[in-house]
């Protein structure tokens, strides 16, 4: 399946799509000189997989040099990653089935995506809530009690801390990556956002100037000598947080819509198939009845 989302707010561009499309857009933006500080680009890495916005600009073609320079203006929002030994072991175990069936060249099999992590942690959360409910004398069939014990709690998941709020929604933790070495074209995490308390952690590699819009209005030639100086309307920490959270929410809504549409289509197809079967049975019964009546006559 392919997701494609692009939101443009004045000079801030938020994208969520395949790596090839991201590269095409960034190359086109660079050709139009939009990557010189006039626009700030954000890419939401939806699946933590190599085919979705991992910041990879290199393809080994004639456009690599332009792509590297263009990606210097691209910031990638991804799930906060940890280096827990448990997660490393979990990743190895997840890769084993692919190796057994001979998928050694699977380009996305090197990473465990958000759905696999989420399914693991959801099952762990259910187990914790079920154990508590049964320990306090409730039946394992008491879904209301079990569900209530899954809300408003924090526990340690396979890839880090998992926090569920009072409404049963997960508080997401995200990282922001930027190209810290343009010559080498390497990325590094410069900031982290923690959903449980809404805080924004700036790391040593964070550079405020990188998130500041630059001038250069052609309608005001008297300002052209200052076009390379960051203007005072640069994105602050709070605004940057809003952009990141907004981008992630947009991606989540897109995923939810996809699965809703898919499940709805499956339900309709099953219902239509069932109706066709029922119609066929009724038609056959009518024909048998008519044939029987003629035989009796």
TrEMBL record:
SUPFAM superfamilies: Periplasmic binding protein-like I (SSF53822)
Keyword Glycoprotein: yes
Keywords carried by this UniProt record: Glycoprotein, Membrane, Receptor, Signal, Transmembrane, Transmembrane helix
Domain Receptor ligand binding region: 12-180
Domain of life: Eukaryota
One Pfam family in the UniProt entry: ANF_receptor
Bias type Basic and acidic residues, positions: 275-290
InterPro entries per UniProt: ANF_lig-bd_rcpt, ANP_Clearance_Receptor, ANPR/GUC, Peripla_BP_I
MF (Gene Ontology): natriuretic peptide receptor activity; peptide hormone binding
Keyword Signal: yes
Record localization: Membrane
The protein's name: Atrial natriuretic peptide receptor 3
């Amino acid at each position: 399946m392919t997701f494609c989302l692009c939101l443009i707010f004045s000079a801030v561009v938020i994208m969520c799509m395949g790596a090839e499309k991201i590269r095409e857009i960034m190359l086109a933006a660079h050709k139009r000189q939009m990557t010189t500080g006039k626009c700030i680009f954000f890419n939401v890495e939806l699946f933590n997989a190599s085919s979705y916005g991992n910041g990879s600009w290199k393809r080994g073609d004639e456009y690599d040099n332009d792509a590297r320079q263009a990606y210097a203006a691209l910031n990638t929002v991804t799930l906060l990653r940890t280096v827990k030994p448990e997660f490393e072991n979990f990743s190895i175990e997840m890769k084993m089935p692919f190796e057994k069936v001979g998928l050694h060249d699977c380009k996305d099999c090197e990473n465990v995506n958000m759905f696999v992590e989420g399914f693991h942690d959801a099952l762990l959360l259910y187990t914790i809530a079920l154990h508590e409910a049964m320990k306090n004398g409730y039946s394992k069939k008491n879904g209301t009690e079990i569900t209530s014990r899954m809300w408003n709690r924090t526990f340690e998941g396979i890839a880090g801390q998992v926090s569920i709020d009072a409404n049963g929604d997960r508080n997401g933790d995200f990282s922001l990556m930027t190209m810290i070495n343009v010559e080498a074209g390497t990325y590094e995490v410069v900031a982290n956002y923690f959903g449980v308390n809404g805080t924004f952690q700036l790391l040593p590699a964070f550079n405020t100037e990188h998130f500041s819009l630059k001038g250069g209005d052609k309608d005001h030639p008297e300002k052209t000598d200052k076009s390379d100086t960051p203007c005072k309307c640069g994105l602050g920490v709070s605004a940057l947080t809003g952009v990141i959270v907004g981008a992630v929410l947009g991606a989540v809504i897109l995923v939810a819509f996809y699965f809703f549409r898919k499940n709805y289509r499956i339900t309709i197809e099953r219902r239509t198939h069932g109706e066709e079967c029922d119609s066929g049975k009724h038609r056959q019964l009518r024909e048998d009845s008519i044939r029987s009546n003629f035989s009796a006559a």
